[in-house]
Amino acid sequence: MIVIVHQHNKTTKILDCNKHAVNAVVGETVTKTLNNLAEKFPETLLVWCHESYLEDLNIDAIATIFHHKRIMASFSPSKENFLPKQIGYVERSFFLKINKTVNYPTWLMHSCVGGVYAEVINQLKADLNYNENFNYYLNSLSKRAMVEGLFCYSEPKLLLENTPLRIDVEQASSFQLFKFVKQHYKWVWVFFLCMAYAVFEKKLKVFPLVKALFYRQLSTNFQLQNIPITSIKKVIQNKEVDVIIPTIGRKNYLYDVLKDLSHQTVKPKNVIIVEQNPIGGSVSELDYIITEEWPYNIKHIFTHQTGVCNARNLALAEVTSEWTLLGDDDNRLNNTLIEDLFSRLEHHGATVGTTVYLQPNEFQTYLKTAQTSIFGAGNSIVKSYVLDAVKFNMAYEFNYGEDNDFGMQLRQLGHDVIYFADVKITHLKAPIGGYRTKVQQLWENDTIQPKPSPTIQLLHQTYFTIQQQLGYKLLLGLRSYKNSTGKHPLKYIKHFKKQWERSVYWCQKLKSQD
After folding, report:
1. Boundaries of domain holding 485
2. pLDDT in tens, 474-496
3. Domain match, 399 and 464 both
4. The dihedral of CA 444, 450, 456, 462: what is its sign?
5. Where does the record place the Glycosyltransferase 2-like domain (predicted)?
């Protein structure tokens, strides 16, 4: 490990893990120092630290933070980031509203303290601009590389516990913000950003917009797969897993799932089935769980209460194994699925993983294992102890968003969700069971129908920044206007505002019900 100490964008010291001076050139920009050290020490972890925080650097935690060579992490005690909060107008992921108390996935990087392996710098150096401001350089690197398989985090353990804010955070100007958007998003987003400033802040950012148009979008086609991942973190004590499956009216499909599980090279310990049938007096139709022999224990719960959130919560309460595989009753699994999942979890040191989840007629478009802002409640595996602190939010029952909310609960606890691009579960999307009844939503009879769906509003209010919520509102309004029959802009805006207000109203009702 080499520590680059810096101040005012210049390197002031270069130290080893014992904080002894390393024979290297100081006085250059931090970006150039990173490049030079990466070439000179190609297998070394490069840590940067502002001079003000050098005594607070948590050397003892470094090895566990960077537990494999494709991790980039940084931290600042400040609530502010280099990119101003207005980046939320154009960013749609859940990576902006950072929980500073845990290891949290985000591409927002800080020059305060952080680190990355030299292999990453060397692999990407042809696409990195070492003449950029250090903060800009870090955020540009992480924004582009995160989707390509660089694992990026805000990590409070980089500093000793209770380290106070010692310096003001450098913040990008509006010119730098517009430049960043032009270089890292599609060109249309700089115009959207300008519009958002005008609508929500009554500011015209004409000059930053015009200047940004002269920059080109930067490449993101990085080949980080050349850097193998072998985590030193031990996440698997034994390979015991419980599988949970909610089901309703899909007897034959569920049978196929159970057969697939019985053929696994690593078999589950328990399969927990929650069968739902709303018809009073009805009994289970799953006779084969008793009449046939299975190479695992089946825990069967029968309930007249329908709803996948409730069913999954009932199943989670019955989990006893080290790992939990969340499944569905219309999945098809290859024989090595569980074995493959354990292999990937072990290599990445991960506690949560999600698979490729396509229907038979769909094709995979994203081919690289990476962090993801989504979560699949029918195709994910989770370390079971994590489940003690989470549940499926009943406010989402019979609507959309419960998967993403559950994934966000995991991230808020410090458990990143890793998408394994080479592990697949087929989702048949089977027809719904014959005895399912249509659920009437609370807002179904509203004269003015809410827009967006109140559960989407709830998801965004919980996990988006204020600027992300406003950016989504503007984008939804523009798209809805484009598809609306009435084209009178003032009438449309008035009606859309009412729809948004009803969405917020019902969102609050859902919050109070949970």
Report:
1. 454-512
2. 999 999 998 888 778 999 999 99
3. no
4. negative
5. 243-371
